[in-house]
């Protein structure tokens, strides 16, 4: 019997084709939307592998319902949607898609930075509404980017790529991370500082930490209070890293100048009051949303799943400790 795979939401064809070429039976959810918990529980039952989205909450119930599954392949680099500890206990491999979406996400962080600094979305709304009557010396003033200080919170792959893009703007780069990043320090003269110092000094603060218990609400009223009144916050990481209500309050009160957001605390819902603010640019979680990147993610997620089902170590294994456990279950 061929291994039996459930794909919780359709992905670019290249990924599905790879699974079919491996001889697997592939069922793609017929719904072009996120699944309800009941649909997910039903979908994963009796499958050898599942290709899931970060919008699927893969908790203990789902993992236990997937009693045959050897692998859950997440179509995302972030895997905070999966209870990895529980998967490890149950002998289920978890994989993600690191690397292939780094540049697309870093580009989006910069798009938000430009848009917030130069009031692009607000200017677009203004112009479309027919309000542009005349140029003026004090009209629609934004903020300079060149020569300013960029603070990168979390200097992993995406944080590093964001920092590297600042070279063309002669920016000073500060970063806050538990680890020294030699590439940033040697090639970009970036300086590692404590978070509070970064907040005090930066004109642009860009978030690139994974969502973990210790990064949930890393940014709240205290942190906004430490930032410059002229500062701009960019978040392309995960919404709950920021207390969104405190952000709305800070943007309203002028505690910070502006924000550019791709992610939200209770996605897809927005904190009341956020959408009414002109000093925030908001886009619908599109960090990796380019044609090229999504194809690469599809091939990578499918490749991880196929490797696991062939009994090989998947290249992007999250719970690597499981691989070394001789007690790992094999199915089929
Ligand atoms: C998207 O947010 C991802 O983690 O890939």
Structure overview:
With 332 residues, the protein is α/β, with parallel strands linked by helices. The chain is built from 13 helices and twelve strands. The protein has a seven-stranded parallel beta sheet with strand order 8-7-6-9-10-11-12, with helices on both faces. A five-stranded parallel beta sheet has the order 2-1-3-4-5, with helices on both faces. α1 (13-21) runs parallel beside α12 (291-309) and α5 (102-117) packs across α7 (157-164). The longest helix is centred in the last third of the chain and has 19 residues, at 291-309. The termini are close together. The structure holds glyoxylic acid. Residues 54, 76-78, 101, 287-288 line the site of glyoxylic acid.
Question: Could you give the topology of this structure?
Answer:
Blueprint: E1 4-7, H1 13-21, E2 25-28, H2 37-44, E3 49-52, H3 60-65, E4 71-74, H4 84-90, E5 93-95, H5 102-117, H6 120-128, E6 149-153, H7 157-164, E7 172-176, H8 182-188, E8 191-192, H9 195-201, E9 204-207, H10 221-226, E10 232-235, H11 244-253, E11 258-261, E12 280-282, H12 291-309, H13 320-324
Parallel strand pairs: 1-2, 1-3, 3-4, 4-5, 6-7, 6-9, 7-8, 9-10, 10-11, 11-12
Helix pairs in contact: 1-12, 5-7
Write a compact overview of the structure shown:
With 332 residues, this protein is α/β, with parallel strands linked by helices. Helix content is 35%, strand content 14%.
């Amino acid at each position: 019997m061929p291994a039996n795979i459930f794909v919780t939401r359709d992905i670019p064809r290249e990924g599905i084709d790879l699974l079919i070429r491996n001889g697997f039976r592939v069922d793609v959810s017929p719904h072009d939307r996120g699944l309800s918990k009941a649909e997910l529980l039903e979908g994963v039952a009796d499958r050898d592998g599942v290709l899931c989205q970060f919008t699927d909450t893969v908790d203990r119930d789902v993992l236990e319902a997937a009693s045959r599954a050897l692998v859950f392949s997440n179509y995302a680099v972030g895997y905070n949607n999966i209870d990895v500890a529980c998967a490890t206990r149950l002998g289920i491999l978890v994989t993600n898609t690191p690397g292939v979406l780094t540049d697309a996400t870093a580009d989006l962080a910069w798009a938000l930075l430009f848009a917030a600094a130069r009031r692009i979305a607000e200017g677009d709304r203004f112009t479309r509404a027919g309000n542009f009557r005349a140029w003026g010396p004090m009209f629609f003033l934004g903020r300079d980017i060149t020569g300013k200080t960029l603070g990168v919170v979390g200097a992993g792959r995406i944080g590093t790529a964001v920092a590297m893009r600042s070279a063309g703007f002669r920016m000073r780069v500060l970063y806050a991370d538990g680890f020294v990043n030699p590439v940033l320090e040697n090639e970009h003269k970036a300086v590692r500082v404590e978070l509070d110092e970064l907040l005090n000094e930066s004109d642009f603060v860009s978030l690139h930490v994974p969502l973990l218990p210790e990064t949930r609400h890393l940014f709240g009223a205290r942190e906004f209070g430490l930032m410059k009144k002229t500062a701009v916050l960019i978040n392309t990481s995960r919404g709950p890293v920021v207390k969104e209500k405190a952000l709305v309050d800070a943007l309203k009160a002028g505690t910070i100048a502006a924000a550019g957001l791709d992610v939200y605390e209770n996605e897809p819902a927005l904190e009341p009051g956020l959408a009414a603010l002109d000093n925030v640019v908001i886009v619908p979680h599109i960090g990796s949303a380019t044609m090229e990147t999504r194809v690469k993610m599809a091939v990578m997620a499918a490749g991880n799943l196929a490797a696991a089902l062939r009994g090989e170590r998947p290249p992007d294994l999250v719970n690597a400790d499981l691989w070394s456990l001789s007690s790992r279950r094999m199915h089929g």
